[in-house]
Amino acid sequence: MKVRPGACIIRDQRLLTLKYTYPGGVIYSLPGGNLEFGEELHSALNRELEEELGISCPPGDILHIAEVLYQGENTIHFIFKCGDISCEPRINPAETKAEEVAWLPLKELDHYTLYPQVGKFLTDETAPVFLGVIEQPRY
């Protein structure tokens, strides 16, 4: 089982994502990554944001917890609401295979394939914190 903290960073009604293109299509991932042994969620998220995007952003409350069953693995995603970022995010190709930073309009999230696929929950104030197993398109 993998544990993956992710950041929900919103600026000007847009969600910060990383764009990946696979043979089956395009996926926009919330910034974040897997825990290393002995690492805490906040520490892992801070490390991933710094390594992949060169930013710092204090993680706040957990917005959602979701499970993804994909390619024989179970990943639990902890999605944190994050505050203002320290600078403009830039892809670090030494740390990620993402092609670019993409700011997606909140009102159009249902038109994109996100990883994890939580777009409809990020804008729903009545959505529960624990989302259970969510459907994730496979690429």
Molecular structure report:
This protein is mainly beta and 139 residues long. The protein has one domain (2-133): Nucleoside Triphosphate Pyrophosphohydrolase, CATH 3.90.79. The chain has helices spanning 41-53, 119-122, and strands at residues 2-8, 10-11, 14-22, 25-29, 59-70, 73-82, 100-105, 114-115, 130-133. Strands 2, 3, 4, 7 and 8 form a five-stranded mixed beta sheet that branches. The longest helix has 13 residues, at 41-53.
Topology, element by element:
Elements: E1 2-8, E2 10-11, E3 14-22, E4 25-29, H1 41-53, E5 59-70, E6 73-82, E7 100-105, E8 114-115, H2 119-122, E9 130-133
Parallel strand pairs: 1-6, 4-8, 5-9
Antiparallel strand pairs: 2-3, 3-4, 3-7, 5-6
Radius of gyration: 14 Å
Proportion in helices: 10-25%
Anisotropy-based shape: globular
What is the CATH domain class?
Alpha Beta
Give the helix tally: 2
Mean pLDDT: 95
Low-confidence stretches: none
Number of domains: 1
Which keywords apply here?
4-stranded mixed sheet; 12% helix; Nucleoside Triphosphate Pyrophosphohydrolase; 5-stranded mixed sheet; 139 residues; 2 helices; mainly beta; 9 strands; globular
